[in-house]
Amino acid sequence: MNQNWHGALTRRLLLLVGACLLLGLITGQTAWALVIGLAGYLAWNLSQLLRLHKWLREHQPDEPPPDGYGLWGEVFDSIYNLQRRNEKARGRLQAVIDRVQESTAALRDAVIMLDRDGNLEWWNRAAETLLGLQTPQDSGQPISNLVRDPRFKEYFEREHYLEPLDLPSPVNSRVHLQIQITQYGNNEHLMLVRDVTRLHQLEQMRKDFVANVSHELRTPLTVISGYLETLLDNVEALSPRWLRALQQMQQQGARMQALLNDLLLLAKLEATDYPTDNQPVAVDLLLLTINNDAQALSGERRHRISLEADQDLKLKGSEAELRSAFSNLVFNAVKYSPGGGEINIRWWGDEQGAHLAVRDNGPGIEAKHLPRLTERFYRVDASRASNTGGTGLGLAIVKHVLLRHRGRLDISSSLGKGSTFTCHFPTAQVVRRTK
Ligand code: ADP
After folding, report:
1. Residue 181 is assigned to a structural domain of this protein
2. pTM value?
3. Where is the PAS domain (predicted)?
């Protein structure tokens, strides 16, 4: 096509020049004839260009282009076809956008689109009821101005959103929301918000039930244990047949008491998100006492327990909670590794934060158990656990305490080679003493 037009144009130009030369020969004014001929051609081209310009600027959507002659006609038609194709494509895209907007508007979950800085770009109707966003006033506002809970701000700024965040609604504190953010495109955010009030209520009922049952069982158990103790204090008056039975009853009673204590502690940990206490805790001193208790627990089994702790590194939080988490890890190492085993406790800091590692060279744990280890009552080997007198709640307590201190638990272990339980705490929780 291009080639054709190239030839035709050349021919047309040659024809024009030939005609001008002929006219020049006849009139004896060759130069003038050429100038007039070429100027006429240029003027015609310019007038076509002006017509095109006028049509492009002023035409109505469906108005066809003016008739053009030769190459100009083809240029007009090509532009017109291109425009119509674009309009059709735009219409199709708009229909898709309309359908997506209609369906998301009908959703009961809130859908909110935020730009890379967290400013509101678009949201559906549910976002107005769940979060109280107002159309169109809030458009372009930062989301953190509208959802003011500090936990949301922290969650939003963290920029990795693997876990959803649960919050009371800013509009109605009895409504509980679950917020999940996904990043897409050019670091923009898609925020999904679900009403989880019902789930939250059920969860609360479960927690209350466990806490109440544990609490109610405590009193009768204390009475039974008290009588057993009195009976065992008068061993001479007992028939030897009963002695062993009573001793076992006392043992199981103590186990039940430990279970109830752990259940109540877990219920207490679950009741709030953060510890009420947030003082810097001297972890090195805490570990020293845990180390002594561990030596006592080991007793005749004579584990070799070593402790390395950075004395300048303190951790913000509740001393009682941290004590129960760390002692659970160290006592587990004593309980589960054979006599004479080596146990190393290490507390150190680096640019990522502070870390506590408890390493043992005990039997280790098979990889398939690791992800489930922090579940309540999960035991690798039920028969072995009953010998150790564990409640099965130790690591669940550790996990909860760490969550409340913004930390996380890392477990690495291989069968026959021992296990390492490491707690990682972010720098925000660490206080370093400067010398
Ligand atoms: P328990 O009260 O039974 O010790 P935990 O929640 O503390 O409950 O631990 C869960 C399970 O993890 C234990 O039953 C045990 O099988 C395993 N476990 C924990 N720590 C160790 C360890 N240091 N070495 C080997 N197994 C361990």
Report:
1. yes
2. 0.70
3. 89-141
